[in-house]
Write the structure tokens for this entry.
Amino acid sequence: APAERGKLKVIIETPPSGIGETDWQSTTLETIDLSEGASGKLNQYKQDIYKIGFGREGGFETFHVPIDDRYRGKTARLRFKLESSNPAGVFLDDVFFSSAHLKFGNPSEARFDSRVPGDNPYRENLLIEKPQYAVSYNRTTKTPNWVSWQVNNAWLGKASRPEQTIFKKDSQLPQGWPEIDHDNYTDKNGKNFGFDQGHVIPSRDRTNHEKDNIATFLGTNLIPQSVDNNRYFTSKTDPAKASAWYNIEGLVRRLVAQDKQELYVVAGTYSTNWTDQKRSNAHPEEVLRGNTKSGEFQKQGIHIPRWTWKTILALDTPGMGVADVTENTKAYTFLTPNKPEPYKNWPEIGSPVAHPFNQIKDKLGLSEPLPDIQNATEWRDPSTWQVTIEQLEKLLQGKKINTLSSVPEDIRQHIKKQKYSIT
């Protein structure tokens, strides 16, 4: 809870280093502005990072304060200094030295390193941590490897998307890294190349305050996403009229809003496909707009994912930690094709198609081919695309993904073999 005026300085102190010295050396890491609230506007994202948004409405606000590598492995202490004429002060709930969004593990052991890509050992696995989520960013693909985030009722509210729903450059990327934004996904006239500017963490998972919502509109959370793997088509509420990915996103919010669960979600991409394809076979407007211009992404070195995936760890009670995870804890995992549906105006009965998983059967570790998908309703059903974590990680083995790495080995391996019903 903030004071009405003033600033809160976050200071790191190191012990005396020389003979005869007695004073600790102080360095201000960041200054949090308590006087002015966050604007919640997309073009003010960078200025809003250390201003209070949701916290002004009666909750606790989370801030991420980076600490320079030179302090790693050394003795140090943190000090908080309030500069305010308001005697009410500031309440500090807790201090963590790792992101809440990585409570159950860092899936690829990503690390932040400020060096330019050519000298950076983490150029394909750069960790970017925000109060809203954590990202492993890939300089080669110019997309995230994965995004990890917590979802509970505290993150869900009534905040709306920005008026201009375009993506901005992420100011947290080190100097010399590619700054991807809306312009990379459109031509000089503002026309898109046939793919949606797809969120990995959806903006609807961050509606407690506009400040947190706009954080999802950054280039490090952006992928080229097929219309048929992203949107609802004719109804927001009828799952048969929306993409499987849209319905999976809806499942997350249902588990939180209705079942009062706390979720830890990790989502990412697999493989690359720069082949031109239909914009859509399902969305009434996009069906009429012909093919994608996938080559425009290839020219820029932006990889178009062939598949998108998401794994959800569901905890029955908010606040549970690693020690509370048991063999009965449920996890839901999905893998969806990032391409248009097989048929235009797909009939509800008839016209079955081979399950796309059969093309990667061995990579998934499937013992038998899956049955055909019969119709559009089945294609749009999340359960059609459900896999185990073990199968997903077998597919991603070249990326060395290990979800739930903080969970004890025996429990982790048990959970990874399970496929739970989502009905």
